[in-house]
Queue: 4 jobs
Job 1
Amino acid sequence: MRSPIHLLRLASAVSAHTLFTTLFVDGENQGDGTCVRMPKDGETATAPIYPLTGDDMACGRDGGSPVPFVCPAPGGSTLTFQFRIWPNAEQPGAIDGGHKGPCSVYIKKVDDMFSDSASGPGWFKIWEDGYEAGSGMWCVDTLIANDGLLSVDLPTGLPAGYYLVRPELIALHQAYRGDPQFYHGCAQVFIPDGPEGRLDIPHEYAVSIPGHVEEDAPGLTFNLYEDEHSTYQIPGPEVYVPESSSSASASAAGGTRKEQRDGKIPDSCLLKNGNWCAKAVPRSSDQKSCWDGVDNCWAQSDVCWDTAPVTGGAGCEVWADYCEILSSACEEGNYEGPAAFEGEEQFAAVPGDIPVPYNTFEGTKVGESNKPATATKAAETDSATAESAPQETSGSSPGEEVVEWEDGTGRLKVSEDGRCGAETGQTCKGSAFGECCSRKGKCGRKTRHCACGCQSGFGECRE
């Protein structure tokens, strides 16, 4: 009787911090470790990444090595990243509550997922969240409240192709001692649809990793215990969100659709564990072919355990059980086979509901400035929104806030997607994204949403 190899490297150290372990695409669990580059050593997997100038700053330890699978993610889809203190989820927890700090998400387009370098130029930031004065919460606090799950929307302006997506946490509890702690990893995704043309990032937003942050940046020397939290500056470049000439999908004119050729999870895959895939055992009709099938099964089992990520080998155990069934059949003289595989992929229990993207920061789009509006611009915006300010009306459905515009052109609904303003006919008042409508038509709670040209006709404003 053979048994799977239990790898010591799957255990997590008691002094663990956190690790990005699992990717969700539009709420669908891709499987622990699937399409995710992560460290191979379980004893140090959750430790912070050093140094700031090292190649590991790109995708973490061992992040320079690609994994076999690339997960498809449609343009504009919601990606959710799960962080765990214990990579194999044997105990709950996302990160220590004292590790307060900001979060960011960077992406990089690559021509070849399996040969292009993760470190180096081509990265840009599509999302960030720091300290929220209103709630007194850091992004890491929000992450903990969401059970280690962080969601962001992919920009719709990304051309079809292969991308590395890099969620980053920075813990500031030791920053005043010159030790800001970085926790990050990379997911491999393929966007099948997107606008025509190249991805040309303006030079002021494009960065190299390492090199995206400076050791003496205010956000990395911040004293969490003495400095005023509301003055915190998130390190790295400003957020940049590519925008296509049309918001329509690739199926419409002006878009493209490509077929993923590399890193696809085979349709013939019977069972998946991380980036390993079980294949059907050959048919058998006599004693020799029966035992050959058993050897084939156990050989696949060895590969499963040898390649199991630090998130564990639950799928390997399922496959080993199947090998035992095949072995028992041969021992009993039942040579016609193999028996049908009836096992299922094992998913660690999701600790909570998949959160909607929070702090949906609009960033900078082509032809726009990310700088705060001038006083004149803010006054013009307030004047314009005041002219079309909506008034509440009766007749709405229970639980739905609906208001009628003064000019009678339509009705406002509470925002369901984080957008607001005249173009969408949605208000932020009462929405889950925040009460304020920014000058760029995004709901939120931060100063950039509630001041600097906030649209008072579509939410609250706090000048």
Job 2
Amino acid sequence: MSNGWYLISYNGKTGYISSQYTSKSKPNSSPSSANVSITEAIAIARRYIGYPYVWGGNGPDAYDCSGFTKMLYAKMGKTIPRTSYAQYSNCQKVSKSNLKAGDLVFFSTSTPISKIVSHVGFYIGNGYMIHAANTRQGIILDNINSNYYSQRYIGGGRY
């Protein structure tokens, strides 16, 4: 947040949202027990938008990409590996056309672009993911078909 504004990405565009339209309520405040539905996990993920990214972050106040997806899956009662590479290596692979809400989407964010997984997002449907992007943006909503992510897409996965 800078001067009361959050940087967000939506529908392939970047913009700002005033902090007056957001809240920093604890995302864990509903449902706290494991085995929430995918719909509830998406609602929980949405409440984290605006939270900071910290490399190696496992929460509860900051996450990296794989720490964020690991936490969401734990809320759904599933244990998944800690790193994006291990999450991809151990999931059931899903084609982009068969992605469902709650799946994971994997990318190579290295430069130059490689085929090695280095980033993961939580797919919420209709081409969108919520993910811990980087230290500048934190946790955001993003389109997996944007120019940046479509070039770096490696695959989808399901647990």
Job 3
Amino acid sequence: MLRYAALAFAILAATPALLATPALADWDKARLDQEVAAIERQSQGRLGVALLDLKDRKSWSHRGSETFPMQSVFKLPLAVAVLQAVEAGKLKLDQPITITRKDFSLFHSPLAKAFKGESNDYPLRELIALAAGQSDNTAADNLMRLIGGPQVVTKMLRDGGIGGISVDRYEREFQPQVFGLQGFGWDRTVDEQAFRAELKALAPKKRSAALALALKDPRDAATPEASTLFLEALAKGNWLRDPAHAAFLDMVITETTSGPLRIRAGLPLGARFAHKTGAGLTMDGVNHATNDIGIVTLPNGRVFAIAIYLAGSKADEKTREAAHAAVAKAAVAAQR
């Protein structure tokens, strides 16, 4: 129980608001069935949602057992795996990790954007914060390489009883493969400008066919229900033994500015949200993924895990993110 509170999610902490929590929390499932089905139609994609009350374990889901591409959502379990390596004595939070230009990955990377020279050292804790808080692809790939690869993250999840989440490739590998191009192994330096030109030059039919396959790929994918179970274990302190490590990760994923128009936009004023987003490219009018998972603490003391995955949507970004907000608003309203 001490570890549970030490995670600093403000989950089930001893506060007056907790006293107002209903003794038998539940969801208005019929209402959610109807409202989320309507939201899915508006989203123009395949929408997966799971809700799990962290006090009474009452749950609800829509396509909850279906598999969805994670995109950057994987960086949250990755951060846990890195912190487990610290607790095992394999790494230290303040140890310097050397990154060179050859270690850059594709797409979003504040680290690469601010990089100077040919080589820089970063404290491990900074790389964790960049990956889990700012969704930095370079930081994430180098952290995953440092602990032994994607399979280490998946094994951690399996050992923790989570069978519906699979982390299989580095960002530099799977991002090109989503559209049928060759991924970058560690023996290849990422040339993002050349890659984008190659992607643009690819025949639209080939891109679309590859994306259709990627949307069904069980690799680097998760089910909404498994995601809420992972979050529940995180809130309970099951993944990390050291309260300081749990508090550090909580700070990172609570203070992130990522996805302000997704789940967070559907929560009431004063709600606390610790989360990780994920998003893929839109090509030929189809978006690979727009995701958000996290733990919500409401002003009345109710706490629940929420996972929303939207795959293959033909809607614009504003509409996709509005679907997240609408689901979150419906989830809060359906509590009883």
Job 4
Amino acid sequence: MHTAEYSDISIALSQFLLKLSGVWMTMNNTEERRRIFAMVYTLVIHIFGLYLNLGDVYYSWNNLGHCTFLICNTLCIILAMFKVLVLNIRRTEFKDLVLLAQQNFWHFKYNHREKILFMKCRRFCKLWTITACSVTQAALAFYLITPICANIGKNKSDRILPFKMWINFPLSVTPYYEIMFAIQVIVVEQIGVSYLCNDNFLCILNMHVIYQFRMLQNRLLNLWKIIDKQTNKADYADRCYTALKKCIRKHQSLIEFCDKLEYVYTLPIFGHMVVFSLLMCFDTYEILLANVSIGTRLIFVFHMIGSFIHIIIFTYSCHCLMEESVNISLATYSGWWTILPMTETGRMIRKDISIIMMKSMRPCYLSAAGFFPVSLETSTALMSSTVSYFTLMRESSTRE
């Protein structure tokens, strides 16, 4: 593997977040024990987060704006926990996926043209990771800033927490208030980590596969140019066939990687597609209609911005994956294979090229549990559903 010579902030940060959630692969018993501890810790945090929000919903049922805020939090917690559980159930396949990426993608042993594409991929992944983490942290920060601002000028006995707890205990009194505030801060941060880590890493893997397909297209287009070095047609055909077989093995490995990526992430994608429109609807309601504080409104502003950026980048990457995998057929057909002599090697080259073209006509894609492939059209459909849900919710709240 080439992992020792590869260093990238997007991969390093994604690995750190996945380790905090208890999802990252392990290489020995010590790392496995740490992973199990992180996994149990993450599940306990999510269960406690569900208790905080659902308990508050029960006692605040008549307050539509506050209940919408709590239900949105609950959906995020359930979605994050679902994704973490799915990746833990399929952690063997997830480990194979990461090892394949380390062996075939994350290194610098490329030629000049391929290095240019690889650097573009690195820049895109770095920009995406920094943007996603920044927007997520901005949204989480207002969960903490809102109660701090609300407590200014209040007595110590009237202080409020980020999430109200309906228990008969003096939580507004020192030191219980500070202890519970710190616990809720930890809960918010851990849920944010588990909500972000899987989607962030999926987008990174997706972009690397896209650029690997582009590299393969360049190889297929350039493998015929060795005619400048060798004029003998029989020898030229042998050289082309040797280079073509390397491209075929590369194509097969990319298809295998896409199949593994689909198997590991198809259920998390489906969960996100189901919940996305509801989350965006609740965000829009809290921003435009609900009678909430400015801090709470800013939480949903950043959450909406992050969700919108994520769905656009993710569907764009899925759409590019389909296009670039199909473009292999065009790159193969555009070669100089028609001028090769009809020797045994020439006939084998023609046969293999026809197989590559037929194989490429079926695009690689990521689907939502097999129901539909994800593309840019998916994002427009989700936005349309969001507008429909928001219109229905606005009319219902107006009648009330």
